[in-house]
User: Which sequence fits this backbone?
């Protein structure tokens, strides 16, 4: 219930911002406004994950041309100076504005406002039995990883934070994570 209420209220409040972002994306680079990707959710079930597009058209096909700060064999791909990111995309990523369309995922019941980080199938394929436990809950737009380092976290730390969150879940902790997320987003640290 909290997810639906927060998503609907959020959409109404930020609808002018969503329109502005969509127009900026369309005016400054070729390609669609939204980027969709397969992610794994509750019980490992795959779902379509929505974001505002922050990269050039066809960026997925150019992944091999960009170095991964975590190393070539690591399942999490991050590069703070990724040349595929558009100028508008850099701003969207720094302040996590590219994540706003995930409220659609909350409304279609594939995600929650707060929960574990939505995993890529390539990540889930290498999960140990301990890591698989993070799939017992819906992934969240925000969560403990979002307020504890964001893209600077490695897979092990990210999963450990998610497991700790699941073991110690409470409604008040969810509220605290939502409030702390606002501060983390305004700082823009660890987002790229």
Assistant:
């Amino acid at each position: 219930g909290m997810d639906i209420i927060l998503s609907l209220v959020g959409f109404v409040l930020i609808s002018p911002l969503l329109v502005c972002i969509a127009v900026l994306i369309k005016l400054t680079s070729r390609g669609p406004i939204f980027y969709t990707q397969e992610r794994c959710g509750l019980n490992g079930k795959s779902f379509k994950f929505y974001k505002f597009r922050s990269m050039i058209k066809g960026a997925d096909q150019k992944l091999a041309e960009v170095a991964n700060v975590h190393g070539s064999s690591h399942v999490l791909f991050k590069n703070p100076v990724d040349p595929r990111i558009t100028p508008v995309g850099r701003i969207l990523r720094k302040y996590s504005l590219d994540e706003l369309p995930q409220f659609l995922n909350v409304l279609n019941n594939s995600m929650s406002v707060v929960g574990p980080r939505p995993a890529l199938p390539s990540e889930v394929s290498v999960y140990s039995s301990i890591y698989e436990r993070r799939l017992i809950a819906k992934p969240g737009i925000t969560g403990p990883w979002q307020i504890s380092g964001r893209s600077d976290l490695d897979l092990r730390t990210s999963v450990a934070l998610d497991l700790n969150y699941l073991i110690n879940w409470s409604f008040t902790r969810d509220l605290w994570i939502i409030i702390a997320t606002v501060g983390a987003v305004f700082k823009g640290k660890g987002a790229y």
About this structure: The CA atoms of residues 13 and 141 lie 17 Å apart.
